[in-house]
Amino acid sequence: MSSLIEHTAKILAKATRAVALTGAGISVESGIPPFRGKGGLWEKIDPMRYAHIDAFMDDPETVWNVLIKDMKHVLDRARPNPGHTGLAELEEMGILTSIITQNVDGLHQMAGTRDVIEFHGNFAWQRCLACNQSIETAKVDLGQMPPRCGCGGILRPNCIFFGELIPHRELTRSQQLSAACDVMLVIGTSATVQPAASMPVIAKQNGAVIIEINPEPTPLTAHISDLPLMGGAGSIMPRLVASVRRHLADR
Ligand code: OAD
Description:
Elements: H1 2-14, E1 18-22, H2 41-44, H3 47-50, H4 53-58, H5 60-77, H6 82-92, E2 96-101, H7 107-111, E3 116-118, E4 121-128, E5 134-136, E6 155-159, H8 168-180, E7 183-187, H9 199-205, E8 209-213, E9 227-229, H10 233-250
Parallel strand pairs: 1-2, 1-7, 2-3, 7-8, 8-9
Antiparallel strand pairs: 4-5, 4-6
Helix pairs in contact: 1-10, 6-10, 8-9
This protein binds 2'-O-acetyl adenosine-5-diphosphoribose (OAD).
2'-O-acetyl adenosine-5-diphosphoribose binds next to helix 10.
């Protein structure tokens, strides 16, 4: 593994427009469970019953009680881990330009990354279904279910439910960045949900080197990833970033 990290760092040190695609796995070491695999949220609850827009519109109280309330408790406590801070350092070094994240937890921004594309929205804000006003999730009164806006309308998180489209701006920018990057770091995603999962394919087709960090193989590992680093982001990223620093200092 050490020589693979060294080799990967050498390639990253030469990159000037690297992009990262991140998923739930990068936040596992911050205490947020992933969706799939061991301990995954979708093992406990059926996403089509509780995370689909139709389910929310039919019965917002149940979706708030089963899914959203717990998410709020978990995300309130979560803080960035070395996976997030490692990416912020790569941006600072002029290597990474942007992160495309499927996560709604805001931890990349908290770690200091400036350009974060929130592909599936963010949990920091709620939107009123009636008047469309936004309210900070931290200020939402959980005493009544479903929580309501001052106007009486029901609040929904500013995240994408299954059955909803990715916002046009985020999708277009992500596709453009994926096509133009020289390296793509794919970290902590099962690469099973479209269209996010197609970003590494776009990057590869346009000549980028694909680095994947994940303790488990994914559909990308065998044919799309050039450099699969098998392990947790919180332990691999600090080693990778330290090695990139050494390569930059040796120049
Ligand atoms: P998943 O839960 O599908 O996948 C998490 C990935 O992280 C798996 O491949 C794990 O092996 C890996 N993993 C676990 N621990 C890790 C660690 N410490 N370091 C690095 N990787 C680790 O999460 P996503 O791919 O993000 O969408 O899921 C994509 C979308 O599916 C989510 O945005 C969400 C979900 O349904 C919506 O809710 C619309």
